[in-house]
Amino acid sequence: MRQEQAGVEKLLRLIQSVPSPKAEPTKLWLAKVGYERIQEILNPKKALKHLKPTSLP
């Protein structure tokens, strides 16, 4: 898990460092998703909107 986390961190840093206009939408999307995730951690009720309803037998 620790090694996987380091790989993800390196990947995100690599994406941040790309000076291409084509990378900008990805950078903006990552920033938005990261912000939303932090908000969900601070307020777990916000995470409920991502849950899919399950059908009980």
Give a brief description.
The protein contains two helices and no strands.
SSE blueprint:
Blueprint: H1 2-17, H2 24-42
Secondary-structure element sequence? HH
In whole angstroms, the N-to-C terminal distance is 35 Å
Q: Using DSSP, what is the number of strands? A: 0
Task: Specify the number of helices.
Answer: 2
Residue-averaged pLDDT, rounded?
Answer: 80
Relative strand content? under 5%
Describe this structure in words.
With 57 residues, the chain is an all-alpha fold. It has one domain (2-42). It is built from 2 helices and no strands. It has helices at residues 2-17, 24-42. The chain is elongated. The model has no long low-confidence stretch (mean pLDDT 80).
Throw out a few tags for this protein.
single chain, 57 residues, mainly alpha, 2 helices
